Amino acid sequence: MSSTAFVGQRVKRLEDPDLLTGKGRFLDDLKLPGLLEAAFVRSPFAHATFTRIDAEEARALPGVHAVLTAKDLPSEMQGRRILLQVPHPQITYAVTQEPLATSEVCFVGEAVAVVIADGRHIAEDAAERVVVDWEPLPAAAHCEAALKPGAPATHADRADNIAGRLALGFGDVDAVFRNAAHVVEERYEPHRGTGHPMECRGVVAVHDMAGDAFRIWTSTQTPHNTQRAVIDMFGLAEDRVRVITPDVGGGFGPKNQVYPEELVIPAAARLLGRPVKWAEDRREHFLTTTQERDQIWDVAAAIDADGRLLGVKGTLIHDAGAYLPWGIIMPYISATTLPGPYKLPAYRMAVTVAFTNLVPTTPLRGAGRPQAVFAMERLMDAISKATGLDPAEVRRRNFIQASEMPYDMGLTYRDGAPVMYDTGDYPEAQAQALAKAGYDDFPARQKAALAEGRHIGIGIGNYVEGTGLGPFEGATVRILTNGRVAIYTGAAAAGQAHRTTLAQICADELKVDISDIDVVGGDTGLMPRGAGTYASRITVNAGSSVRTASAELRGKALALAAAKFDVKPEDLELSHRAVRIKGEQGDSITFAELARMTSGMPGYALPKGVKPDLEASGYFTPPQATYSNGSHVAEVEVDPETGRVTILKYTVVHDCGTVINPMLVDGQVQGGVAHGIGNALLERMVFDADANPLTTTFADYLMPTAEIVPACDIVHMESPTPLNPLGAKGAGEGGTIPAPAAIVAAVENALSPFGLRITDCPVTPQRIVELIRAAEEMSEEDTP
Amino acid sequence: MPDAPPKRKITLTVNGREYTAEAEDRYSLADFLRHALGLTGTHLGCEHGVCGACTVLVDGEAVRGCLMLAVQAEGCQVTTVEGLANADGSLSPLQQAFMDHHGLQCGFCTPGILTTLTAYLRDRPNADEAELREALSGNICRCTGYDTIVRAALAAAGAMREGGQP
Amino acid sequence: MEGADGAPQGRQAGYAGGVKPAPFTYHRPETLAEAAEMAASLENARLLSGGQSLMPMMNLRYVAVDHLIDLNPVAELAGITIDGGRVSIGAMTRQRAVLEDETLARCCPVMREALGFVGHVQTRNRGTVGGSLAHLDPAAELPGLAALLDAGITLRSRDGDRTVAMADFPRGYMTPDIREGEVLTSLAFNAWPDGHGWDFREFARRHGDFAMAGAASLILLDRDGRIARAAVVLIGIDDGPVRLSDVERMLTGETPSDDLFRAAAALAADRPMAADALVTETYRRHLAGVLARRSLAVACARAANGGGHA
Q: Is the Cβ–Cβ distance between A465 and A628 less than 8 Å?
């Protein structure tokens, strides 16, 4: 057997047979005897205080067991807020949510009470009957307006709406701007969207009175975050709180957070002595699950006469929403991502994080990078217009070269380490993308199309993405007494097929088939330490941990068998879940027997230096992030009369280092691009001037469908990284990150006869028509 | 004090087997299948008729399980994802094609897509890509970006044409 | 929202925001007569047809009723009858059946074209003609077709039948002329002569979405190629579909040409249009003009080619 029978292959997923036959076990599928269901009473106002909550009529409904407000929660929860998981010295107001609001609500949907009933229907009937004495307050509806003097206060007791400020930079920015041949300056406004996994959130909690212990199932990406928050809130030891991740129907970032429901539902279970479930519905998801993308960039780039960047400076306003569950990480990521794959001698970005009375914002697929890439790539196209250089050529002149790797771009990443691009060939990535997309022929095709009355356009988006974030994601690999292999890891999956990927890595080390391996993830009871599935980090971290642990376990199995057969380990080999002496008639011992021997068999003496149990653990800790990169080229057609955009062709060059399973990486890229298409053309959370959400169903908030998303042409490059044993980098977000930039550039290019400029996204048909008409009016004014 | 809403007995056939259970008049077919009958393969993604995750076959036709009342399915033949595999438990050509072509990631929208395609390919065994994308436009998937779903559907259609059975 | 006891300002129910409907009693008439009787006698009742429009509203609790009368078991309400150019479609006829009916497609090809825009495969399996008419969404295709075809809508009550011209059917936003105790039973119209041209189009962000605006036209040319008869309708611009009789007058007697279409489109757009938080009146007006122009061009071209099958 070759040493990589599985790694690098398009291995079919272990997850599929159950999911294809309806045997998945998602949160709302869980059945427990005596399970009660919850519905929350939520604020209809974006900002209000309240005094009395009258639940008398609600409690009287048959089937209602309790209606709890903040004061009804256990004493440990009184006056408390959810743990802030990502503190930062630059945060000036580190406010997170209360489990249930006590007197003030700061966004539409914030919960003030919970109904526990026999079923969800009854619980909603009761929730409708709860009456609250609201005193509406002025609400801050937009991050820029919220920072102006006299703006409504997001939180009634605060003098301003600032969550924190950051300043980053290097080099002498003022000098380069003084000496620049050209300066381009623009404002960019990417708009809010959200994740909308097809499965909403949910929590089931059981409290064991005898042991004062909780078992909590939650549709999460990070069970350990939930556990941390619960033990913080209730003052319990770790072993009293077990958080288990069921099958999760998509995460995309927002399921990374800890939400009030994850604290209230366990409290209710304890108070009532019954298991309690809360299954979020889509309406609630629109109102309460975190969102992202609203930012305002005012940036300027100084360039020399050859179109080379001399410096970039600007300000960034980031919309935090009403609370700060993930600190100020995202704008930090945005500001450090802006330079991208380009050489930048000087940089200054001043970031203000603003509170608004909108749903809180936390990382959503791309985590602040789509916005930064949008800004940088739009700047590149602005430079192209200012200098007359082709957009691809401008980028070529500015790329960091492969020979310059590893490249210190001058900033510090969120983990405190320098932003050091490890490997990658940015010019080659773009070159391959352009070749595959037929970029050089495009001007001729565009001209021919225009002659037929069709407007087609092409656009480029390049990105560099920090992935594989630490601190760790461990794995314990164990050979069981039944001969099967078990992998325990903290990582929870939501569709990324960790089971398959991790099994592939282990199978190659232990020379077994992936079907011999059971991967159990996301259970704090089985894996006490874990960080979670976000930031495209699991293959790097958990995968590397599995690799090292499996290798160590292989060594242990060989040492044990060598002692038993009185041979050297080099005389042995692993095959078919056994260890055998090499050669035709070699003796062998099965994995099962080895496991039984080491698990406490009376009379058996372990060989010198070998610990009990046939298992090994790995906790790979990356020295720094590892940088994936890619180039996207979008080709679109625009109907200038209606503003409709059709994507004709979408090309992706994607480099995530060593690829464990190409089929899965292709899936992540195609799915990521679909989300990016949503951000470019369709998806926008719209709020009115009073911060009321206007897009609260799938009829108003438009998700990409099979007719909108084309098949991507995906080209893989592999620039392995020396930073982990696999040479792998993260792959979950690269499809999304540059897509809005590439698509908006293509739309603008298609409409170049009209000479308009698009600086926000999503760009809707209505907006396109408005821009065309404005451009036509302006040119009419100019024409004598 | 108001009474609890009454429940009535509903009898229907699901995946070839007769079931009788109680439901309030307002329970959707999807809720009934999931909670009264324990068939949790059918999923609820929006409950306002857009996402398609709840699609089941009622008397052979793909319908949104969240927009049909359980009581309306009295006496009907319902097929859910749990009933798509072959009699011997092996995956149907469509299910197998999804596995071969990576047509699912988190699997939450998958049951609704499988039932939609099962009915569609039965009626239009020669559907081309454009027709399939239109047929799928009433199902939202957030993970895959649809291409592998379309590949799987085309492969399944091909396999079924050769094998001569759905 | 008012508090339960007319309490002081600021007091109101918490926002539950769920997707499970409020309780109701379900009724299952077997005949039209039974259904009409129930519609007349039950308080706070609604009729359930396909459910594709009503159930989302009930799930979101925009609508709450005490009684739901299910028309699906009433077999006599479904069916398409075509007799000497007179088309009658029963209210409970599924949208899918209308889309797929070959005879209907031959005599009234605009219907097939329009039905292709109605929702999705799954919704057309349940959604009905009558349900869409009674729901009267401003952007709905079926009311637009009814207006285009000068259809009559028949309603049955305990007291007998009443027929309303489609032009008189919309009373306001999602408010049709259906009285208490009435059941919409059928839609009927005279098919246009063989060889007429047709077109139905709409602009929606994604296939199957509610249209932001839509236009449909029917054109009959005389032997000299001039427009003998024209019917033009816009959907999505007002509470109900808008027949553009002024545009029709402008077109009658004229020879089709790009200039004519442009002029007709300008007139079509020259009227108030709906606006909301997501779509401005300006854009909707612009769309209506573009769609009207394109619709007329295609309908005239089809008429010149002798009409034919959708």
A: yes
Q: How many CB atoms lie within 10 A of CB C5?
A: 8
Helix or strand (DSSP H, E) at A467 = strand A455-467
Q: State the average pLDDT over residues A258-266.
A: 98
- The b/e string for A279-307 (b: 16+ C-beta within 10 A; e otherwise) is bbbbbbbbbbbbbbbbbbbbbbbbbeeeb
| Residue A422 backbone dihedrals phi, psi, to 5 degrees | -85, -60
Q: Is the pLDDT confidence value at B73 over 50?
A: yes
C55 and B120 within 8 Å at the Cβ level: the answer is no
Partner C contacted by A130 (CB < 8 A): yes
Question: Regarding the domain with residue range B93-161, which homologous superfamily does it belong to in the CATH classification?
Answer: [2Fe-2S]-binding domain (1.10.150.120)
Tokens of A287: 């109102």
Tell me the count of A-B CB pairs closer than 8 A: 182
Kindly provide the residue ranges of all beta strands, DSSP E only, lying in A191-330, ordered along the sequence: 193-194, 202-208, 213-218, 241-244, 276-279, 291-292, 295-303, 309-321
Mean pLDDT, range B48-59, rounded to an integer = 98
- Asked if the peptide bond before residue A325 counts as cis, ω within 30 degrees of 0, the response is no
Domain match, A772 and A632 both: yes
Paired tokens of A318: 């980031």
Q: What is the value of pTM for the model shown?
A: 0.96
Q: Is the pLDDT of residue A501 over 90?
A: yes
Contact present, B129 and B150 (Cβ < 8 Å): yes
Q: From the centroid of its chain, how far is CA A665?
A: 16
Question: What's the whole-number average pLDDT of chain A?
Answer: 95
Residues pairing with C217 in the sheet:
C199, C232
Superfamily of domain B7-81: Beta-grasp domain (3.10.20.30)
Of the candidates C13, C203, C210, the beta carbon closest to that of A130 is on: C13
CB contact under 8 A, C18 and A134: no
The DSSP secondary structure of A352-375, one letter per residue, reads EEEE-SS--B---TTTTHHHHHHH
Token representation of residue C221: 């040319």
